[in-house]
Design brief:
Elements lengths: L3 H6 L2 H24 L6 H49 L1 H5 L10 H46 L4 H15 L2 E3 L4 E3 H28 L3 E4 L7 H4 L5 E3 L9 H5 L16 E4 L10 H9 L1 E4 L2 E4 H31 L3 H32 L12 E3 L5 E3 L3 H12 L1
Antiparallel strand pairs: 1-2, 3-4, 3-5, 6-7, 8-9
Helix pairs in contact: 2-3, 2-5, 2-6, 2-7, 2-11, 3-5, 3-7, 5-6, 5-7, 6-11, 6-12, 11-12, 12-13
Length: 406
């Protein structure tokens, strides 16, 4: 089995690579936005814009090509690690009982794992490729906005540029779906979590069939979405009914909204009556279900609190993108008035970030939740020693200085 806690953090290192790509994209857009400052001739503007769009797409494709080998190696490592861990922990009750068990993946299980690794690599590569066109759309949209605001006289050139830089950073690099758009890291986190968890589910089914297993136990965690809290932590009969409810009927396994569905961190594993010990007592499951936290005088469920925390973390990452984008734009600008305006914005964003971090830490203290520092770093991951590693500390250091100065 893979625990919900493991599934919450297992992809952080890979996601940090895509966080870095997203920051590089918004920084490149910001640099290119200020290159056209002061241009008022329409034909010259369109020519320069077309040149910048081509350069932007070429730069992004180069960045994607450079990181693809690293990300594909990390995807493969994650799947292999998860598969081996799952096979070992699934039969732990038999080992404790003194029974001899095979801890290796069978040939068919290895083939399944390799096929899913390839499929996930392709899916994530395709998601990443879309960032080239969406970044070009962002640049086109906000460079047009800046140009129209400046030539119409509605805004000064300085106001038009700073507005465009901020708006592009707010949007960030995204993946466009038919009915929504997601930031690149969000889309990849969801894809990877769902792919790994569903693959582990298939491997568990194959292992259970080889061992003649008749029952599964489902994992549980605090803060589960309400529809999943109904069936988590229970024991189920794989086929038919006896003293236990039916597995698929109860959990919705195989459905996108059920067990191992999209963004689900619940797993299942073999259970042997008389040998296995239930992992969750009735008291523990009741504690998960009934636990409440208070924040600023309002009571929330664990699930509601987790959603509030995730929202605060997303806001902090957005502000960090604004800082990186503004820092790049002010360095690239040759107009003194624009640089001054962007310097002012950098100070404002730095103060905003400081307040956001303070509020998040206060929320975690009041609700007794963990402050997950790697979730608020735009470009960070935990290394093999559990330390948060930063790819770019310079902007953070400048932000701290600007906040103090401001």
């Amino acid at each position: 089995m893979l625990t919900p806690e493991y599934l919450a953090v297992f992809s952080n290192r890979l996601l940090a690579m895509y966080d870095q790509l997203e920051v590089q994209i918004v920084v490149d857009i910001a640099r290119r936005l200020v290159k056209n400052e002061g241009v008022t001739d329409s034909a010259l503007w369109q020519y320069k814009q077309a040149m910048e769009i081509g350069g932007l797409q070429e730069e992004i494709n180069s960045q994607i090509a450079e990181m693809t080998g690293k990300t594909e190696a990390e995807i493969e490592r994650l799947f292999i690690e998860a598969g081996a861990m799952n096979v070992r922990t699934n039969v732990r009750p038999l080992e404790i009982a003194g029974l001899s068990v095979d801890l290796s993946l069978s040939g068919s299980m290895e083939q399944t794992l390799l096929a899913e690794i390839l499929r996930t690599k392709n899916n994530i590569y395709n998601l990443t490729l879309t960032t080239g066109s969406t970044a070009a759309d962002l640049y086109r949209q906000y460079s047009n906005q800046a140009y129209m605001q400046a030539v119409s006289g509605a805004f000064s050139p300085q106001q038009a540029i700073r507005s465009a830089v901020k708006a592009a950073a707010d949007e960030g690099s995204y993946v466009q779906f038919p009915k929504r758009r997601d930031h690149l890291d969000v889309a990849i986190r969801r894809n990877l979590l769902t792919s790994v968890n569903q693959t582990i589910g298939v491997l568990t089914e194959m292992q259970a069939e080889d061992l003649g297993v008749q029952y599964y136990e489902v994992s549980a965690h605090s803060g589960a979405r309400p529809s999943h809290a109904e069936w988590q932590g229970q024991i189920y009969k794989i086929e038919g009914h006896d003293d236990y409810p039916n597995f698929e009927e109860s959990t919705g396994y195989g459905d996108i909204t059920g067990l191992c569905g999209v963004n689900c961190r619940h797993t299942f594993y073999p259970y042997w009556p008389g040998i296995s010990k239930p992992a969750y007592s009735a008291e523990k499951l009741a504690e998960y279900e009934n636990h409440r936290v208070e924040y600023e005088g309002i009571e929330y469920t664990d699930y509601e609190a987790s959603q509030i925390q995730r929202g605060m973390e997303r806001s902090i990452r957005a502000t960090r993108r604004e800082l990186a984008s503004t820092d790049a734009a002010r360095k690239a600008s040759e107009d003194e008035a624009v640089r001054k305006a962007l310097n002012d914005d950098f100070t404002l964003f730095a103060k905003k970030l400081k307040e956001q971090e303070k509020r998040l830490k206060s929320f975690c203290r009041q609700t007794n939740r963990d402050y997950e520092s790697d979730r608020v770093q735009v470009v960070a991951y935990k290394d093999e020693h559990g330390r948060v590693v930063h790819f770019d500390r310079s902007v953070s250091q400048k932000a701290v200085h600007a906040a103090k100065k401001g």
